[in-house]
C-alpha cells in the first residue's frame, strides 16, 4: 500500500512539475511579440534569413534560427552562432532557441521548422512556437517516405504549422495545395496570404543582382510580404536582405580558368527534390556564355534511397548532360536506375567521396579520352575536316558543373573547394539576363 501511495505521489509531482514548466514556457513565448514559423519543402533557410534581415533593417529587434545546411542562431546584431547538439537533432532544441531570444530581448523570432513527421510538425507549432505568423515556402514532392505518399500529403503535413488566429504566408502556386492550406487556415481561424507570380515578377533583375548569391524571386517576394505585414517598408527590408549573410547551402556560382577553359560550378546541392532540380537544370543549361559541356554531379546518401530513385528518374528525362558524376554513399541505387533509364555507361563517372581536385581531374580525363577517340584515325567516310572541328570544339569549350542531391558529406566538401579554393571567383549574375533564368527554384 505504501508503495502504491509513493508511486501516486511521484506521478502527481511529475505532473505538477510539467504543468509549472509548461506555464513558465508559455510566459516566455509571450515575451516575444512576433513569432514567425517558417516551413516548406524548398527555401526554408533562405526565407528565414531574408525575413530576419528585413525585420532587423526595419528596426525590429530580431533573432532567427535556421536548421538548413548548418544549424545557426542569428542574434539581433546579425552575429551567428552554431547550434550545439550533444546528439542527433531534436525538436526540443526549439525551447532553447526561444529562451535565447528572450534573453536578447527580441521583439521577433524567425524560426525554421525542423520537424518532418506530420505529428511533430503540429507539436512544434502548437506547443513550442505558437506562431503569430506562419510561412510555407512551397509544397513539393520530397520526403515522401515520411510526409507522402503524394504531393498533397506533403501540403497537409506542412499545413500542421498553421498558426492559431494568425496569418499564414505562402508562395505555393498550385490550386490543390492552396486548397489544403486554406482548409487548415479556416480550421485555426487564420488568414491565408498568397505570394503570386505577379509578386515574384515585381522583383526586378537589378534587385536580384544585388544578392551575393543566386536568390529566387519568389523567396524574396514572400519575405517582403511578411516584412511589410509587420510595418517594414519594401526598400528598407530589401536593403537589409542584400546585406545579410546567406545560408551555407545557398546557391552560388563560381568560375575559374581550368587548362585555358572557363569552368562554372553551380552549387545547387541544397535542391534535392525532382521539381526544384529540374527547374534549376533547365534554367542553367544555356545560361552561361560559351558553355558546350555540362556535367551533373549527384551527391547520394545511403539513408536517402527513395530520393536517389526519384532523382534518377527525373535526371533521365532532362536535357542531356555530357557527364554524370555520382558521389557520396549508396550510389549504386542512383547508378542502376540511371542506366536502366537509358543513360550510356560511358557518360557516367562514380567517384564516391572524392575531393574537389580529384573530381576535376576525373572529369578532365574523361573528356580527354573522348578527345583522343575523336582525333584518332577514322574510316575513310569521316572527313578530316569533321575530326578537326570536333577536336577544336573540345579544346575551346567552356564547362558547367552543377551539384545536386544532398548538401551533407562530399557535397559540402565540393562546395567548399569550388567556393573557397584559390582561383575560383564568384560569378556575378548579369542583370541583362532574362528574369526567368534567375527563378531557379
TrEMBL record:
Protein name, per record: Capsule biosynthesis protein CapB
Gene: capB
GO molecular function, one term: acid-amino acid ligase activity
GO cellular component: membrane
Organism lineage string: Bacteria, Pseudomonadati, Planctomycetota, Planctomycetia, Pirellulales
Domain of life: Bacteria
Gene3D superfamilies: Mur-like, catalytic domain (3.40.1190.10)
Domain Mur ligase central: 38-155
Short name of any one Pfam family annotated for the protein: Mur_ligase_M
InterPro entries, per database record: Capsule_biosynth_CapB, Mur-like_cat_sf, Mur_ligase_cen, MurCDEF_pg_biosynth
GO biological process terms, semicolon-separated: capsule polysaccharide biosynthetic process
Amino acid at each position: 500500500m505504501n508503495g502504491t501511495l509513493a508511486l501516486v505521489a511521484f506521478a502527481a509531482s511529475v505532473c505538477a512539475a510539467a504543468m509549472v514548466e509548461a506555464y513558465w514556457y508559455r510566459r516566455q513565448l509571450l515575451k516575444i511579440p512576433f513569432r514567425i514559423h517558417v516551413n516548406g519543402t524548398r527555401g526554408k533557410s533562405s526565407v528565414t534569413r531574408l525575413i530576419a534581415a528585413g525585420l532587423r533593417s526595419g528596426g525590429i529587434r530580431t533573432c532567427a534560427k535556421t536548421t538548413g545546411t548548418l544549424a545557426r542562431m542569428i542574434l539581433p546584431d546579425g552575429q551567428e552562432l552554431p547550434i550545439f547538439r550533444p546528439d542527433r537533432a531534436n525538436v526540443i532544441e526549439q525551447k532553447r532557441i526561444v529562451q535565447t531570444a528572450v534573453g536578447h530581448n527580441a521583439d521577433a523570432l524567425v524560426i525554421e521548422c525542423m520537424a518532418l513527421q506530420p505529428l511533430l510538425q503540429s507539436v512544434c507549432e502548437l506547443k513550442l512556437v505558437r506562431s503569430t505568423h506562419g510561412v510555407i515556402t512551397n509544397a513539393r514532392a520530397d520526403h515522401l517516405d515520411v510526409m507522402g505518399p503524394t504531393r498533397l500529403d506533403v501540403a497537409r503535413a506542412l499545413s500542421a504549422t498553421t498558426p492559431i488566429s494568425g496569418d499564414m504566408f505562402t508562395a505555393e502556386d498550385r490550386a490543390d495545395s492552396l486548397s489544403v492550406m486554406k482548409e487548415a487556415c479556416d480550421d485555426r481561424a487564420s488568414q491565408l496570404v498568397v505570394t503570386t507570380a505577379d509578386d515574384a515578377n515585381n522583383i526586378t533583375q537589378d534587385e536580384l543582382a544585388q544578392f551575393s548569391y543566386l536568390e529566387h524571386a519568389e523567396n524574396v517576394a514572400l519575405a517582403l510580404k511578411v516584412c511589410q505585414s509587420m510595418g517594414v517598408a519594401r526598400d528598407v527590408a530589401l536593403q537589409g536582405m542584400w546585406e545579410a549573410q546567406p545560408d551555407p547551402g545557398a546557391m552560388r556560382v563560381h568560375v575559374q580558368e581550368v587548362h585555358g577553359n572557363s569552368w562554372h560550378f553551380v552549387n545547387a546541392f541544397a535542391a534535392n527534390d525532382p521539381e526544384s532540380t529540374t527547374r534549376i537544370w533547365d534554367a542553367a543549361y544555356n545560361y552561361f556564355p560559351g558553355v558546350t559541356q555540362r556535367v551533373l554531379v549527384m551527391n547520394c546518401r545511403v539513408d536517402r534511397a527513395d530520393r536517389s530513385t526519384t532523382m534518377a528518374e527525373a535526371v533521365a528525362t532532362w536535357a542531356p548532360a555530357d557527364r554524370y558524376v555520382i558521389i557520396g554513399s549508396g550510389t549504386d541505387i542512383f547508378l542502376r536506375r540511371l542506366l536502366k533509364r537509358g543513360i550510356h555507361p560511358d557518360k557516367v563517372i562514380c567517384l564516391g567521396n572524392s575531393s574537389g581536385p580529384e573530381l576535376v581531374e576525373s572529369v578532365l580525363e574523361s573528356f580527354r579520352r573522348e578527345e583522343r577517340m575523336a582525333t584518332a584515325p577514322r574510316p575513310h567516310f569521316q572527313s578530316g575536316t569533321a575530326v578537326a572541328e570536333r577536336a577544336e570544339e573540345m579544346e575551346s569549350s567552356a564547362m558547367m558543373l552543377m551539384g545536386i542531391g544532398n548538401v551533407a558529406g562530399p557535397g559540402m566538401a565540393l562546395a567548399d573547394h569550388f567556393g573557397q579554393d584559390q582561383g575560383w571567383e564568384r560569378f556575378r549574375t548579369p542583370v541583362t539576363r532574362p528574369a526567368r533564368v534567375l527563378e531557379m527554384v
